[in-house]
Amino acid sequence: MSRGDYAPHDAGPRPGVAYLVGAGPGDRGLMTARALELIAGADAILYDRLIPAGALDGAREDAELIYVGKAPGRVAMEQEETERRMVEIAREGRSVVRLKGGDPFVFGRGGEEAETLEAAGVPFEVVPGVTAGIAASAYAGIPVTHRDDASAVAFVTGHEDPGKESSAIDWPALASFPGTLVLYMGVRNLPRISERLIASGRDPDEPAAAIQRGTWPDQRAVVATAATLPDAVAEAGLGAPAILLFGPVAARRERIGWLERRPLHGRRVVVTRARAQASSLAAVLTGLGAEVVELPAIRIEPRIDSAEVAAMVENIHSYALVCLTSPNGAELLMRALAERGLDARALAAATIAAIGPGTARRLRELGLIADIVPPRSIAESLVESLREVEVDGRPVLIARAAEARDVLPEALAERGAKVDVVPLYETVREPASEDEIEAIAGADYVTFTSSSTVRFFLETVGESFPARARVVSIGPVTSETARELGLDVAVEAEQHDPDGLVAALLADAAL
């Protein structure tokens, strides 16, 4: 391969080039920008079992996704076939990403794959990933090096049977290594690993740790000694995937372990918002330690190409009051104006009312400052806040979803307003796969941000609604719908927006 064949670090993948990409240890936030860039542009992706959840969400719709994962006793595709497919795809003139958990060159067989690509004359690029030996330890609060405890660290495979006569591991040398030992894929062999290290001279009382599913929301760790770690792991029920760690640094977990201190650690939370909006809420909850399951119950279908919307835009300058009842409505109103060559100036003569802080925030992001924002994000509160606004005989626009309560238009009409209710979108049920529905099992909380999310979520999951889950509602209207449909609402936000919902959930979790 000559350097002239392609330029490394292009904006996206190049045709005919193979990319050996590390996806990191499990937390999607640890994926590199380069990895995400290549996933987004690749023609084909061959991916492993232990890549982060959602790692492929950014892939092109027409990308060929090929699962080549390996689990104990189960191999989706043999290594030789995986390498053959990479070569084949690249020779077809397509870009191919070989996506691996962790780092491709740390017990990931990336070196073998690179040699195969080189021998076949296929240009390739290596994208390192954060390896589990460092990341899982850090997430468990164990620094693999420390000024007082360890000036060196050794990464070792624990997959090899330490009792076989032809072991490639020099156990006496490993036992005398003056630093931290990190063993990958060794949890099944832990009793014999511990026995062999101690027999070769490792201190049986030295601190040791095992970390299962490092950096994932359900990460678990135990700290013991080199001699007692096998029993501690068995008692805790830890299994693969896990790393083992031997060295004085393991004792520091007691002081600096941070992951479990996050307020929602160990809680599984279901987010039912529309897919385009779910990610922001999911990110906040994940940052607080929750294991988030995204199962969007609704999809937003814009209706800004309708005759009603065209008539609204044509008359937009005439409205004395414009009421927006959701962030979606705010966004689609501005999009409808923009598609017809107008902007915020078209609303200069109108009083702008937003039903709550979430809608007001989205308007502000779009260049509009709401004149009226009620204290509660419900129609009744907006009606009350509009009492001092003169509407008798004046044209009023209510831009909203196709299906919504009529509290606001009826109240304004009773005061003599000439009300135009214009649906900018409708909410429809988002179908879910069996795997997505199974993922909500055992959830601690299910969050609802609107009445439609309640209705459509229940239609989707049916009897699979998680039995022990506490229902978290964004406000009284959503709560009323949930109760009408047979749910017990455990938590209701005082501030009726996603921030208020998170605050209410946190308060409940702290009880």
For the secondary structure, the number of strands is 22
Q: In the CATH scheme, what's the topology name of the largest domain?
A: Cobalt-precorrin-4 Transmethylase, domain 1
Identify low-pLDDT runs: none
The CATH homology group name of the largest domain? Tetrapyrrole methylase, N-terminal domain
**Number of separate helices:** 18
Q: Quickly give the structural class.
A: alpha/beta
Number of domains: 4
Distance between the termini: 61 Å
Shape: elongated
CA-based gyration radius: 28 Å
Mean pLDDT: 92
Question: Which percent band covers the strand fraction?
Answer: 15-25%
Q: What strand line-up does the widest sheet have?
A: 3-2-6-1-7
Task: Tell me what you see in this structure.
The chain is α/β, with parallel strands linked by helices and 511 residues long. It folds into 4 domains: 128 residues, 3-Layer(aba) Sandwich (Cobalt-precorrin-4 Transmethylase, domain 1), CATH 3.40.1010; 127 residues, Methyltransferase, Cobalt-precorrin-4 Transmethylase, Domain 2 (2-Layer Sandwich), CATH 3.30.950; 110 residues, Rossmann fold, CATH 3.40.50.10090; 127 residues, Rossmann fold. 32% of the residues lie in helices and 21% in strands. It has 18 helices and 22 strands. It has a 5-stranded parallel sheet with strand order 3-2-6-1-7, with helices on both faces. Strands 8-9-12-10-11 form a 5-stranded mixed sheet, sandwiched between helices. α11 runs parallel beside α12, α13 packs parallel to α14 and α16 packs parallel to α17. The longest helix has 13 residues. The radius of gyration is 28 Å and the shape is elongated. The mean pLDDT is 92.
